[in-house]
Amino acid sequence: MTWDRINNTTCGFKSRFHEPWWRSPEEMQAHLPDKYPNPPQLTEKTDVYSLGNILWNILTTYTPRGKQRKEEREYAIRQLVANGTLPSWPDGFNQTTLLTNPALRAIESAAKKCLRPKPQDRPTAGEIADELLEAKKNMPDGFGDRETWERERRRSENKV
């Protein structure tokens, strides 16, 4: 990315992608000029939005916008993304696990911050890294310990 010395800002860059599934609102707005004649410039915050999509995928094990069926859903997905609509919880995702699992809560929090509709409202990638590192440091004793996890998993399987 280049630097505009006169305005003391990044110059941004043009979007080349048309697929809506993993794109940021500003990328989709750039491809819908009839509805969005003055979309925001693409900056590093576009990559932060992509990080949010990846975190969403890690959290739910589903892509943020569902299956990529081009003919059936592409137009609708473009509108949702361009409007900055957050992805919906996938069918079968147990949201109550977020209440009891501090790691999942941390990932959810980070993903939602990255997926904010306005680029200027998104944190930097470094801020997200710091937040996740801090969450890791504050995990309960034994949380994330593979042996403890295996023991708990075996115990719960024996109950069924």
Describe this structure in words.
It is a single chain. Strands 1-2 form a two-stranded antiparallel sheet. It has 160 residues and is an all-alpha fold. A hairpin with a 4-residue loop joins strand 1 and strand 2. The protein has seven helices and two strands, in the order E-E-H-H-H-H-H-H-H. It is flat and about 60 Å long. Helices cover 51% and strands 2% of the residues.
The number of distinct helices, counting runs of at least 4 residues, comes to 7
Name the helix and strand elements from N-terminus to C-terminus, one letter apiece: EEHHHHHHH
The proportion of residues forming helix, as a percent range, comes to: 40-55%
Mean pLDDT: 84
Span of the ends, CA to CA = 55 Å
Q: Strand order of the main beta sheet, please?
A: 1-2
Please give the number of β-strands: 2
Record keyword descriptors for this entry.
single chain; 160 residues; mainly alpha; Transferase(Phosphotransferase), domain 1; 51% helix
Question: What is the topological layout?
Answer:
Elements: E1 3-4, E2 9-10, H1 25-30, H2 44-60, H3 70-83, H4 97-100, H5 102-114, H6 125-137, H7 146-159
Antiparallel strand pairs: 1-2
Helix pairs in contact: 2-5, 5-6
